[in-house]
Structure formats: C-alpha cells, structure tokens
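Many introductory courses stop at the sequence. We go one step further.
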Amino acid sequence: MTSRHALFVVALCTLALTLFACVEPEPYSPPPVVDYSSPPPSPPPTFYFVNVSGLALREGPTTAAPQITSLNFNDQVEILDTSGSWARVRVTNLGLTGWASMRYLQPMPSDRPRPVPSKRPSAPKKETPPPAPKAM
C-alpha cells in the first residue's frame, strides 16, 4: 500500500469515527404491554324484525321441533346463533329464546307483512283396487 492510500484510509476512518461518535443512540424503550386477560369487547347485538304475521318460535332449528309461541309482525328479535337457514333468537319484548326461520326475519321494520307461501296441496292419493279373491 502506498503512503497516499494509507493516508486516505486513515482520513476516511477518522471521518467515520467522528460522524458515528456524534450520533447518540436512542434510549431503549420496551415494547408496549398487551393485556390478554380481558377479552375484546363483544360486538353490539344483531336485531332483526319479523316480516310475517304469526312466525313460529320453536325449540329447535326444524319445523318438527315443538312450537314455543307465535311471533307477531314487526316483533324485534336478537340473533344469538345460526344453523343453516334458522336463527336462535331472543324475543326482545318477551325475553323468550327459541329458533325461527331466517326467511321471515329482516334487519329493518316493515310497513306491511310479507305474504307467506301456502303449503302445496299434496297429490291426490291413487286408490288401489282391493286384492282379487283367491280361488280355492
């Protein structure tokens, strides 16, 4: 290495030491403490309104489940859970809990009840002729 190079390296090192010595390191700050002991706030309740006259409130999510009561048009319910097309609801004004078809619930009150499709009449039963008498 030539003396010129050596002098350049010494000057460069001196400059680097001067610059880094002037910069003060930031004081250590610990990461923020997260409190996991309390759960996050629960979302506000989800309210819906009955959009038919006479909606069955049932003990389970099926039409075969026993009926608890009948809900009136525009009754307010709080949805607690869902299962398929059924919702487990709490009836706001009665305090009852049961299952109702979500087809007949909507997020806003309505002006008039929605028509409920009537049950299709069952196909007429074909009469079967009585068995022919047996020959003896």
